[in-house]
Amino acid sequence: MKLLKLVPDDTNIKFLRWRVPFYVVSILLIAASWGLVLTKGLNYGVDFAGGLNITATFTESTEAPVGDLRDTVSELGYGEPVVQRFGDDNQVSIRVPLPDSVEGNPEAAQNIANAIVAELEASFADFRLDGNENVSGKVSDEFRSDAAFALIAAMLAVALYIWIRFEWQFGVGALFALFHDVSLTLGMFSLFQLEFSLQIIAAILAIIGYSLNDTIVVYDRIRENLKKYRKMPTPELLDLSVNETLARTVMTSLTLLIALVPLLAFGPASLFGMVAAITLGIFVGTYSSVYMAAPILIWLGVDSHSFVPTETEADKQDKIARGEA
Amino acid sequence: MLDFPLWKRGWFWGLTLALTALALPSIFSLSGARWPAALPDPEVNLGLDLAGGSHILLEADPTEVAVQRLRNMEESVRSTLRRAEPAVSFGDVSTAEGRLSFMVQSVADVDRARSLLEPLLNGEGLVREWNLTVVDETRIVLTPTEAGLEAAVNAAMDSSQDVIDRRINALGTREPTIIRQGENRIVVQVPGLEDPDQVKELVGRTAKLEFKLVNENALQTDLAQGIAEPGQQIFPYAPDSPFFGQNVAVYRLGGIDGGSLIRAQASRNQDNEDVVVIQFDQQGGNRFAKLTSENVGKQFAIVLDGEVISAPVINDRILSGVSEISGSFTPESAQQLAISLQSGALPVDLTVVEERTVGPDLGAESIRLGLLAMLVGSIAVVTLMIASYGRFGVYATIALIFNVLMILGIMALMNTTLTLPGIAGFVLTIGAAVDANVLINERIREERKRGRRVIAAVENGYREASRAIFDANITNFIAGVLLFMFGTGPIRGFAVVLIIGLFTSVFTAVSLTRMWVAGWLRRTRPQDLNI
């Protein structure tokens, strides 16, 4: 039986020929992402912004009355609600920011939540409350700082590990690739104003994990080739390493994608944001392993000496003493 | 490298099958079937986002604990100094700025007061809870220490947890979780509950019950402006009382509080009203008898958490120590009040700072969709693996199945909770396991292409790929641990699956497949590999 081969044998694609333009584009994208995040901001869900979030299904309708919902809730005078389709067409999420006056007064927040739910139940006959979240500003602030800390700590910790296992250039390269992935993901969320919640933080950490997998596989091969082909110029050696691992890269990305696509297509609505972020991360992560993490090694000055133990004065004395030199 | 002695094979299979067996009860119940009751059943718990239910995060205000503690200290100091023989006279007591300060009459009294108060200053284990200083010769100042405050908050939270535990358990719901989180928070999780408001009512209520004599001559207009005579206190009527909007002035002293209750029960009186019948202990009963016999014909207010629920007239003295509280109750609210009173008052007010509720319908739907999506995804992955790597793909597939079962088994063993993000964690883990096999198989292909003989190619494939697999998993492990440390709730569920999955996927994707490949190579000694 002939087996399926997605990548032909002995590919020789000059990935790194275009490294400078790719780098320019990527750095521009990173800058644009941060520009977006800083100016337009992220669409924080209740986890990070505090407030109320009500999810509901309209059991008798094929489509949720989004406009009516917005009017009904805003007439109650607690602030402008964000009403979004969520999952099926007859499901919605209604987010209501809490007025500043109830900040630090959870009981008042509770009363508002109850009032809104009661009004919705009275106004819409087939309203079914699926879920209800109510996060106080204090807790959401904590979630935000904890999440930011977890992201930064995770990135630094893995970079440190790679530094120890490889060389400092590899640690810097991996850190840069991760920074690229996280920036672009945040930029996407800001651009499309997708809801940013705790689950998305989990997704970003998963992206970090996945992108690292990729980066490490490429780096591992670079390290191996640096020892094997001592005379090869670095750009050529990097290209060779990326090509050698190409079959694996394609195969793994593809299998992960085909595992994720069903979850995207008909998985639970509450997972959609998270799965979408991870799916996006697979593309971004694969790209960054090849085009960000590898070329930076050229500029950081990696060569075959990196993995040859340097001979110190003491070693020389040792050799002389043993009569080898 | 490809040598697997019998003991090693036995060990691998033993571990695999043992952990797989642990997963069986969970699979049975996830698929809706019943696991025989006679067998032990370690099961994976379903998170609230899957099972439906309520998650409530309660927070106590440490400054409130400090204020109460200061009040108690003031009480102790007063009685200690008064009871001394001869009594130490003191005055100008103040509790401003979180400190207790008072003046004694002469310099000679300072030393006596100091030695009398010394036993009050240390807590359990001789932790210094208060510092005593003397200023201006005769003024004694007691300042709470950091350690003392911490211990007080801790004790208040511990007993709050007990009280909440009793209240929730009185509801008779299945497997509630009540755990402390951080210094001053408590998480309450009640799976599969239809009415989350019921839980909120129960845990959000302090249930501090007081019986106070009413000053019937006070004017409503004065009370509305907050003007009360000295020694009196103003309380509003509760919102569901017919007198809501009015206020009541009560005498501070001479009342009884709910601390001496031994029983509270919802009931109906002869007028068919819902009431709560309460019974005092011996001491409380005596005081209640005294209060009622001395004040027949007068009004006493029943005050719950600072609101008057009713203010009946005392018709007759009550000697039995049994009384009933009436006041616009429904059967449910009477039941809830009875539970709250029976389980005791919370030592501190707790406020709800985070609340999440998931309806049971949505949860069930999420599981069904999540499992279906996983199934479809797995079939697609398996097809691709077998099409690409043939026999090696089959080994990878079997390893993958064991991988999923082992994760479930370990989760059941550790009694962890499967959440919705946890399902995504599963998908990712499957990805990691697949990646390991892809790395190995691609490497074997390479080695064959370079002309290595079969056994050497397989050996090299596993060895060379292991390095990258190891590094990738360690870094993911680091990320998973950080996620677990800083994540909350469902995110932790994701981290747990990820961390467990790293271990099982390395074991199944590397060790098990290697054992199978080795067995096959030994048996058939193939001259070529179809890979």
From TrEMBL, chain A:
<feature type="transmembrane region" description="Helical">
    <location>
        <begin position="20"/>
        <end position="38"/>
    </location>
</feature>
<keyword id="KW-0812">Transmembrane</keyword>
<dbReference type="GO" id="GO:0065002">
    <property type="term" value="P:intracellular protein transmembrane transport"/>
</dbReference>
<protein>
    <recommendedName>
        <fullName>Protein-export membrane protein SecF</fullName>
    </recommendedName>
</protein>
<keyword id="KW-0813">Transport</keyword>
<dbReference type="InterPro" id="IPR022645">
    <property type="entry name" value="SecD/SecF_bac"/>
</dbReference>
<dbReference type="InterPro" id="IPR055344">
    <property type="entry name" value="SecD_SecF_C_bact"/>
</dbReference>
<keyword id="KW-0811">Translocation</keyword>
<dbReference type="Pfam" id="PF02355">
    <property type="entry name" value="SecD_SecF_C"/>
</dbReference>
<feature type="transmembrane region" description="Helical">
    <location>
        <begin position="171"/>
        <end position="192"/>
    </location>
</feature>
<dbReference type="InterPro" id="IPR022813">
    <property type="entry name" value="SecD/SecF_arch_bac"/>
</dbReference>
<dbReference type="GO" id="GO:0006605">
    <property type="term" value="P:protein targeting"/>
</dbReference>
<feature type="transmembrane region" description="Helical">
    <location>
        <begin position="198"/>
        <end position="219"/>
    </location>
</feature>
<dbReference type="Pfam" id="PF07549">
    <property type="entry name" value="Sec_GG"/>
</dbReference>
<feature type="transmembrane region" description="Helical">
    <location>
        <begin position="240"/>
        <end position="265"/>
    </location>
</feature>
<feature type="transmembrane region" description="Helical">
    <location>
        <begin position="147"/>
        <end position="164"/>
    </location>
</feature>
<keyword id="KW-0653">Protein transport</keyword>
<keyword id="KW-1003">Cell membrane</keyword>
<comment type="similarity">
    <text>Belongs to the SecD/SecF family. SecF subfamily.</text>
</comment>
<dbReference type="InterPro" id="IPR048634">
    <property type="entry name" value="SecD_SecF_C"/>
</dbReference>
<keyword id="KW-0472">Membrane</keyword>
<dbReference type="GO" id="GO:0015450">
    <property type="term" value="F:protein-transporting ATPase activity"/>
</dbReference>
UniProtKB/TrEMBL annotation, chain B:
<keyword id="KW-0813">Transport</keyword>
<dbReference type="GO" id="GO:0015450">
    <property type="term" value="F:protein-transporting ATPase activity"/>
</dbReference>
<comment type="subunit">
    <text>Forms a complex with SecF. Part of the essential Sec protein translocation apparatus which comprises SecA, SecYEG and auxiliary proteins SecDF-YajC and YidC.</text>
</comment>
<feature type="transmembrane region" description="Helical">
    <location>
        <begin position="420"/>
        <end position="440"/>
    </location>
</feature>
<dbReference type="GO" id="GO:0065002">
    <property type="term" value="P:intracellular protein transmembrane transport"/>
</dbReference>
<dbReference type="InterPro" id="IPR022813">
    <property type="entry name" value="SecD/SecF_arch_bac"/>
</dbReference>
<feature type="transmembrane region" description="Helical">
    <location>
        <begin position="493"/>
        <end position="517"/>
    </location>
</feature>
<keyword id="KW-1133">Transmembrane helix</keyword>
<dbReference type="InterPro" id="IPR054384">
    <property type="entry name" value="SecDF_P1_head"/>
</dbReference>
<keyword id="KW-0811">Translocation</keyword>
<dbReference type="Pfam" id="PF21760">
    <property type="entry name" value="SecD_1st"/>
</dbReference>
<protein>
    <recommendedName>
        <fullName>Protein translocase subunit SecD</fullName>
    </recommendedName>
</protein>
<comment type="function">
    <text>Part of the Sec protein translocase complex. Interacts with the SecYEG preprotein conducting channel. SecDF uses the proton motive force (PMF) to complete protein translocation after the ATP-dependent function of SecA.</text>
</comment>
<dbReference type="Pfam" id="PF02355">
    <property type="entry name" value="SecD_SecF_C"/>
</dbReference>
<keyword id="KW-1003">Cell membrane</keyword>
<keyword id="KW-0812">Transmembrane</keyword>
<dbReference type="GO" id="GO:0005886">
    <property type="term" value="C:plasma membrane"/>
</dbReference>
<dbReference type="InterPro" id="IPR022646">
    <property type="entry name" value="SecD/SecF_CS"/>
</dbReference>
<dbReference type="InterPro" id="IPR055344">
    <property type="entry name" value="SecD_SecF_C_bact"/>
</dbReference>
<dbReference type="GO" id="GO:0043952">
    <property type="term" value="P:protein transport by the Sec complex"/>
</dbReference>
<dbReference type="InterPro" id="IPR048634">
    <property type="entry name" value="SecD_SecF_C"/>
</dbReference>
<dbReference type="InterPro" id="IPR048631">
    <property type="entry name" value="SecD_1st"/>
</dbReference>
